[in-house]
Amino acid sequence: MCMSSRxxxxxWRITFDTNPDDCNLHCIMCEEHRExxxxxxxxxxxxxxxxxxxxxxxxxxxKGLSEIIPSTMGxxxxxKHFDEIIKISSRFGIKxxxxxxxxxxxxxxxxxxxxxxxxSSDIKISWNGARxxxxxxxxxxxxxSQRLDDLYTFVKVRDDIAASGGNHCRLTFQCTFMEINLxxxxxxxxxxxxxxxxxxxxxxxxxxxPEMQHLDMRRSIESRSxxxxxxxxxxxxxxxxxxxxxxxxENFVPLPIENAEIPPHWTxxxxxxxxxxxxxxxxxxxxxxxxxxxxxxxxxxxxxDGGMEAIWEGEKYSHLLYNHMKYSVCRRCNMRRPPAEVCxx
Length: 345
Prior knowledge:
- The chain is of the alpha/beta class.
- It is 34% helix and 14% strand.
- The strands form two sheets. Strands 9-8-7-5-4-3-1-10-11 form a nine-stranded mixed β-sheet, covered by helices on one side. It has a two-stranded antiparallel ribbon with strand order 2-6.
């Protein structure tokens, strides 16, 4: 059911930027960790105080919060307090929704599956190619064959936990839609079905520099037309998977051909529903690149008196909810979706 933004008194999901500087890969589309991105060499390294997470979850658990997401700007499994996140989620009955690069650092895929699957609603594994050359060119530092072997191990443990009466954690391939992997999306869907991945989700590339512009599928009439043809083929592919193989597609949405602008009636899936907290405790209203989302204003810190609840119910955030389309970052945001897609996601 599609809920209005005010049917609960708080966000249903909060993303905490726990450890944005920690990652063992250099994905070409990454705001933080792509190669030759020297201005992102933060010293000292940014690290969220675990007590900030505990306080915020404790405050919001009774106000509609049902999921938390550890960092999506770094590799969350490298966060030194990740074991405490597990304890916090268990204590308050909050599920973890995880996005990982699929390298399963330190513990390996079997141990991480044993830890994560009982407490997670969805684990999104970044996956951007059906061939080794493509995956390794995009997710630099990742070895395709090893990642594939690890994934089979992880899925088996997940399935064994569910079969024994435990939690069934959904698994998702998380893609970035761009020129370099466009023609492999069909095979990524087939790979997902073969392995036991239930969903393929993606979003269009955030262009962080002029060097990335040629990868953006929204850049021209020709590129948008090709994207739309691929969307149609992907939707057809899931209809004709072998019996017993089911894959959900999310954000595989045709783009307007003649105009690169996102249609004005497309809706933000986040405002009034989800929240982000940066490593220092600053409240952020969405997942746009940090410089861009700061254009929306400063709303406060969750460590301040009143915490997340005061910000969520505050005048500044309420003003943004009703006036966000006056901001250029919202008008051009590639995360806005047709209303039916927002309600169905």
